[in-house]
Design a protein that fits this description.
The complex is a heterodimer.
Chain A: E1 4-13, E2 16-26, E3 31-35, H1 42-50, E4 57-62, E5 65-69, E6 72-73, E7 82-84, H2 96-106, H3 111-124, H4 140-152, E8 158-162, H5 170-187, E9 190-195, H6 198-204, E10 207-212, E11 215-220, H7 222-227, H8 232-237, E12 242-251, E13 257-261, E14 264-270, E15 275-281, E16 286-289, E17 297-306, E18 311-316, E19 324-329, E20 338-343, E21 347-350, H9 353-359
Chain B: H1 2-5, H2 19-46, H3 57-64, H4 66-99, H5 105-117, H6 120-131, H7 136-141, H8 156-180, H9 184-192, H10 197-226, H11 229-238, H12 243-254, H13 259-287, H14 307-334, H15 350-358, H16 360-393, H17 397-405, H18 408-411, H19 414-425, H20 440-465, H21 468-476, H22 481-509, H23 513-518, H24 526-535, H25 539-566
Classes of the chains: A alpha+beta, B mainly alpha.
Chain lengths: 360, 576
């Protein structure tokens, strides 16, 4: 169990910057997901914590102790961490038992204790009975469990997971997610989990750190990311938010924001100052009403697809060409049908500089 | 993406009459006469009844002799021990050069691969020059053995040492390729659980590359079994006879009358070579499944404080092994006469002048080897392109069989092939009524058989990577097959064929094993010439000639290297 502090971390591969000044504090015993599109630097950040890459500048501490900083670098073998690789990285020439036992032997654990810890680690992941198999003789899910057993047998203070579920089918992935939650609960170890799948991150983690282009966009609980995205990138990446240009008029007495969307005045929530802004709308923020309903915004149905129990309806706004909004309906409208929209909720962001320049 | 890279193999197209069938018939005749007949007849000759008519009499007689028993044992010892040396050196070098941050790794790699470019007899000559009582380099240091004593290289130990160094690059290349396919994750996972680099090497990397080490060892063993240059130059004066030199001495002493007996001895060489190659094939099949993914190559381990001492030691070791013998060779060539101490005053270029213009025989050898190498590489390229086209692109069954058979003359020891060639070409040719035995043509026949593979492999490898759509597109627009071969495929494989042709030229130019058994007065090759100058005791002249040949081969290697890197990646054997 340990905390991790990443302070002003930068890293480049050749001339390409991968991390541009990342500050991240991971609390003791926390389950943190690092989420972002591929190439955002999340795996590099994980490997930096493990000591498998060297920082460009900045500092990394574990439990307050400097692991890497100016003039100091602790080798990965001395950091006492656990890591599960995307490829599992099981050693092909060793049996499952040897794979789990190897780290204990390297750390100088005596043979009788080793045997007992291997047995309990394999029992914890449900692999008892497969001790003598070679990794090649295991199924994908079993390999994943063996890799996990290898990791927890050492009782590491932090467990780092690099897209561990990427190579599993949807069903197994769900089962392993529950396994991770259970192990986290039982061991109380700090988990850092890298993924590009937002639903996986939301389902597993206490907190999610969203990264893009080598920078942290937002760190918060899954609920906060969904309801109150800090940037346009987070709004678009998490929960398929539509982003519409609005003008922020001001804050009303109740604390809500008054905004105008295509000449249509609405009340919403957010933390943007008066001026150009972006309204983030989730499908459940949009209500479809009959055409020309008073106090509503005209729209047209572009596409309808069935999603099991409800229809996802793609809408275009004649007043805002080039933008689409997704709504959810219990009954299927006709494509091309004219409707009207009302909004309940939504979240207003300050517009990024590019949009501001365009508006000016 | 995956869908694009695995196109449906085109249906084999039926061959058209008559151009294509004539061409294929020609290829068939080539392989039949130069590959199948020599190796087939070798077996028939060796399996003949004895003089008294008993079953397998020739084999029984040949194998019962005391000299055979000794040579067989010597061959096993020399091949086994030199393989061990090659494995230790090759694996050690591969680990140091691929896994650490040693300074100057690219240059070290080049120096370690250098022995591959130098034919065995020249390596042997260089070591003789370095280690003998009249060694110009040891002499300068005062370390030379006392005058009058036998050169310590003229011994079993010398053979093992020089062959071990000569074949270490084979292990180095195999292990380096193996290391490149060890996924980085496996190494990192070891470090995460607390294994330091040394233990990662012992417990994770070595087990993972064990198949590559064994495959390299098998290759080194097969090469050692078939090596003639080293035992000829070191073993004959040292009275250590190996199977290859036993065959040479028998044929040289008794002529074609002992063909049956030497064929029976050759069986043993073939058997040992097949055993080695079979082990290699089995290992490669087995290890295919062991590592199922290749990822990025692992970062080199930092040697830290050890970087300087290990670096200095490695550099000194590699320079001693790879460069010092060559310096000794040059120094020996600069000595005016055997026994004279080399100094700035005594230094002389007389030997170089003599080999370049002073001896009609040496000049004849230059002309012979150049012409032989040129014709052999040209014909092999001309044969390899259509053969590879029919076998790979057109997937013709007969051509595929011919392609497979072409492996044999390169896989068997050269001595074995030479015996087969003699058996086939000793009797007068049918229709023509004269024999080519003792002429230029028999050496050419042997080269055409042995070196075809060196052009065939790169061309076939390139054709395998070519999109079948190119051929199909030409078919769709109605191009007849031979025109497709000429206008579409030949330009594509030209760089590979050229690289292969140059490899053949390099190999043939300083070839000894085949020509040692096939030459006669007037058809001396450069390899034979070096051997005989040394045999006559004219070491300085032999060294001068060897220096000139080595320089020529180095220049060719440079050209091959550039062609390989620029136009035909993956076809040059030393590029990994």
């Amino acid at each position: 169990m340990a905390s991790v502090d990443v302070i002003a971390a930068t890293k480049s591969f050749g001339k390409t910057p991968v991390l541009r000044g990342v500050d991240l504090a991971i609390a003791d015993g926390e389950f943190l997901a690092l989420l972002g599109p591929s190439g955002c630097g999340k795996t590099t950040l994980l490997r930096l914590i493990a000591g498998l890459e060297r920082l460009g500048s900045g500092e990394i501490r574990i439990d307050g102790e400097v692991m890497e900083g100016p003039g100091r670098f602790v080798d990965p073998e001395d950091r006492h961490l656990g890591m599960v690789f995307q490829s599992y990285a099981l050693w092909p020439h060793m049996s499952v038992r040897r794979n789990v036992e190897f780290g204990l032997a390297m750390r100088g654990v005596a043979r009788p204790e080793r045997r007992q810890r291997v047995a309990s680690a394999l029992a914890a992941v449900g692999l008892t009975g497969l001790e003598d198999r070679r990794p090649q003789a295991l199924s994908g899910g079993q390999r994943q469990r063996a890799a996990l057993a290898r990791c927890i047998a050492l009782s590491p203070r932090i467990i780092l997971l690099d897209e561990p579920l990427a190579n599993l089918d949807a069903h197994l992935r769900h089962a392993m997610q529950q396994e991770f939650r259970r192990l986290h609960r039982e061991t109380g170890t700090t988990f850092v989990f890298v993924t590009h799948d937002q639903s996986e991150a939301m389902a597993l983690a206490d907190r999610v750190a969203v990264m893009d282009k080598g920078q942290l966009q937002q760190v918060g609980t899954p609920e906060a990311l969904y309801a109150e995205p800090a940037t346009a990138m987070v709004a678009a990446f998490v929960g398929k938010g539509a982003l519409l240009p609005v003008a922020v008029e001001g804050r009303s007495q109740g604390g809500s924001l008054s905004i105008t969307l295509a000449g249509h005045r609405i009340e919403s929530r957010g933390d943007a100052a008066p001026g150009p802004g972006l309204l983030c709308l989730r499908p459940d923020d949009v209500v479809i009403v009959p055409a020309n309903f008073p106090g509503s915004l005209p729209a047209r149905v572009a596409e309808v697809s069935y999603r099991g129990g409800h229809y996802a309806v793609d809408l275009v706004l004649p007043a805002l060409p080039g933008h689409r909004i997704e709504a959810s309906m219990r009954h299927a409208p006709q494509p091309g049908e004219a409707v009207s929209l009302q909004f309940e909720g939504g979240w207003v962001l300050a517009a990024p500089d590019a949009v501001r320049a365009e508006a000016a | 993406m995956a869908a694009v890279s695995t196109p449906r193999p085109p249906r084999p197209e039926r061959l058209r009459i008559p151009g294509e069938q004539l061409l294929l018939a020609g290829l068939f005749l080539y392989v039949l006469v130069l590959v199948v007949l020599p190796l087939g007849r070798l077996f028939i000759e060796g399996l003949k009844q004895g003089e008294a008519g008993e079953w397998l009499g020739v084999v029984r007689e040949a194998w019962a002799g005391r000299s055979f028993g000794r040579a067989f044992w010597n061959t096993l010892v020399a091949a086994g021990a030199s393989t061990l040396l090659s494995v230790v050196l090759g694996t050690g070098a591969a680990l140091l050069l691929r896994l650490t941050d040693l300074p100057g790794r690219a240059a070290l790699m080049f120096l370690m691969l250098l022995p591959m470019l130098i034919p065995p007899q020249i390596s042997a000559l260089a070591w003789i020059g370095l280690g003998g009582p009249s060694s110009p380099i040891l002499g300068l240091l005062g370390l030379a053995p006392p005058p009058g004593t036998t050169n310590p290289l003229y011994s079993m130990g010398g053979i093992i040492w020089v062959m071990g160094l000569e074949h270490a690059p084979l292990v180095l290349l195999a292990v380096a390729a193996g290391l490149a396919s060890v996924p980085r994750d496996l190494i990192e996972a070891g470090r995460i659980v607390g294994a330091r680099p040394a233990r990662v090497v012992v417990h994770i990397i070595l087990p993972a590359i064990a198949p590559s080490v064994l495959a390299g060892a098998a290759l080194a063993f097969v090469s050692a079994i078939g090596n003639f240059g080293v035992p000829a130059l070191l073993g004959i004066p040292g009275r250590v006879t190996l199977l290859t030199t036993l065959i040479y001495q028998r044929l040289n002493g008794f002529g074609p009358s002992v063909l049956g007996e030497v064929a029976a001895i050759a069986f043993v060489l073939v058997g040992l070579a097949i055993a080695g190659l079979a082990i290699r094939t089995i290992i490669q099949r087995r290890s295919g499944a062991a590592i199922d993914r290749t990822g990025p190559i692992a970062d080199p381990f930092a040697l830290g404080r050890l970087r300087l001492p290990v670096g200095v030691l490695t550099w000194v070791g590699v320079l001693l092994i790879s460069v010092l013998p060559l310096l000794a060779l040059i120094a020996t060539a600069l000595v005016p006469a055997l026994g004279v101490k080399l100094s700035l005053e005594t230094l002389s270029f007389a030997n170089f002048a003599w080999v370049l213009s002073g001896s009609a025989m040496v000049q004849r050898a230059f002309v012979n080897s150049t012409i032989l190498a040129l014709i052999a590489s040209a014909i092999c390229c001309i044969v390899a392109v259509p053969l590879a086209y029919f076998a790979v692109t057109r997937r013709n069954r007969l051509a595929q069989l011919l392609d497979l058979l072409s492996d044999a003359p390169y896989a068997v020891p050269g001595t074995v092939l030479a015996i087969g060639i003699i058996i086939v070409f000793l009797p007068p040719l049918p229709v023509l009524g004269f024999s080519i035995y003792g002429s230029f043509a028999i050496i050419l026949a042997a080269y055409l058989s042995r070196f075809l593979l060196l052009a065939l492999r790169p061309v076939a490898a390139t054709l395998r990577t070519v999109d079948p759509g190119l051929e199909e597109a030409a078919r769709i627009v109605g191009t007849p097959p031979l025109r497709r071969l000429w206008h579409v495929m030949t330009p594509i494989v030209l760089p590979s064929a050229l690289a292969g042709g140059l490899l053949i030229f390099m190999s043939a130019f300083n070839e000894l094993t085949l020509s040692a058994l096939l030459w006669s007065t007037g058809t001396e090759t450069l390899g034979v010439m070096v051997f005989f100058l040394q045999y006559e005791g004219n070491s300085p002249a032999a060294a001068a000639l060897a220096t000139v040949i080595t320089a020529a081969v180095m220049i060719l290697a440079l050209i091959v290297d550039v062609i390989g890197r620029r136009f035909a990646p993956g076809v040059v054997p030393w590029q990994v």
